[in-house]
Write a structure and sequence with these properties.
By secondary structure, the protein is α/β, with parallel strands linked by helices. The protein folds into two domains: 170 residues, 3-Layer(aba) Sandwich (Rossmann fold); 103 residues, N-(1-d-carboxylethyl)-l-norvaline Dehydrogenase, domain 2. The protein is 50% helix and 14% strand. The strands form two sheets. Strands 3-2-1-4-5-6-7-10 form an eight-stranded mixed beta sheet, sandwiched between helices. A two-stranded antiparallel ribbon has the order 8-9. Helix 1 runs parallel beside helix 6, helix 8 crosses helix 12 and helix 8 crosses helix 13. The relative contact order is 0.09.
Length: 288
């Protein structure tokens, strides 16, 4: 039986997209998921890439299918689920194996886990992945934190699947243990601030200037053609131009006026306070 170069556990939006990206770049990938019923449909939808995907419903079989020393990328919720996963997989790991956490984890947790795994001579890598589902599938930006030895082993895979800017791969080893997750946290915190600014501009134009959502969307479209060009400005223009097919009203007027968060914005504010730095716009976004 052939051995896979890397294993991906967690076939949600990001995990499945990364698995397809790696397979497309020529890597054999073992895949598994806690909800085993997700695996077969994923393989079926992979089409021609399925030949490079090795599905396993059982965790032990999944680990056994990997080249030694093993490389396993977990794309599961951060926090308690990751700690539980590490306890479950620990008896199956050997010295030299690399565990990669690709979720939005608190970098303090990443540092703790790295210390715990290092006792048994296993490597723990915190990987920040940016770009959403489309980026994961066609080329994400990645921020790596962990031992240099681990980075040297996984670099060929991550470099191959990364986005490119001016021909250079958008992936870098940023330092030990939690460095990658720290940078990803601050990256997300900045996006919180961007979205808060966009929301406040919308509020001023809608409530103060009396413009309609499509009119405001046209302004954002104009701004996106200049120095303010960005993904967030682009999609804001598209959202404000959209209409609900059932009512004919602007979509922004019929969706629930609420948003959730996964913690990275809050963590950014906490670290800013610890370092004596001002992050008032990010704090406003977290509190909104």
């Amino acid at each position: 039986m052939a051995s896979a170069r890397i294993g991906i556990y967690g076939l949600g939006t990001m995990g499945s997209a990364l698995a397809l990206n790696m397979a497309e770049k020529g890597f054999d990938v073992a895949v598994s998921n806690r909800e085993a019923e997700w695996i077969a449909p994923f393989i079926e939808e992979a089409g021609g890439l399925a030949d490079r995907l090795y599905p396993h419903e059982n965790l032990a079989d999944f680990v056994a299918a990997l080249e030694r020393p093993r490389v396993i990328l977990f794309m599961i919720p951060s926090g308690a689920p990751m700690d539980a996963m590490l306890r479950e997989i620990d008896p199956l790991l050997a010295p030299g194996d690399i565990v990669i956490d690709g979720g939005n984890a608190d970098f303090h947790d990443t540092r703790r886990r790295a210390r715990e795994l290092s006792v048994s001579r296993r490597y723990y890598v915190g990987l920040g992945v940016s770009g959403g589902e489309a980026g994961a599938r066609t080329g994400p930006s990645m921020m790596v934190g962990g031992p240099l030895e681990a980075w040297q082993r996984i670099a060929p895979i991550l470099t191959a699947i990364a986005a490119r800017h001016d021909g250079s791969p958008c992936v870098a080893h940023l330092g030990p243990d939690g460095a990658g997750h720290f940078v990803k946290t601050v990256h997300n915190g900045i996006e919180y601030a961007d979205m808060q600014i966009i929301a406040e501009i919308y509020g001023l134009l809608r409530g103060g200037a009396g413009l309609s959502p499509p009119e405001i969307g046209t302004l954002f479209e104009t701004w996106n053609a200049g120095p303010l060009r960005s993904f967030l400005v682009e999609i804001t223009a598209e959202v404000l131009a959209a209409r609900d097919p059932q009512t004919g009203h602007p979509v922004v007027d019929v969706i629930k006026d609420a948003a959730g968060q996964k913690g990275t914005g809050r963590w950014t504010v906490i670290e800013a306070l610890r370092l004596g730095q001002s992050a008032s716009v990010i704090e406003a976004a977290v509190g909104a």
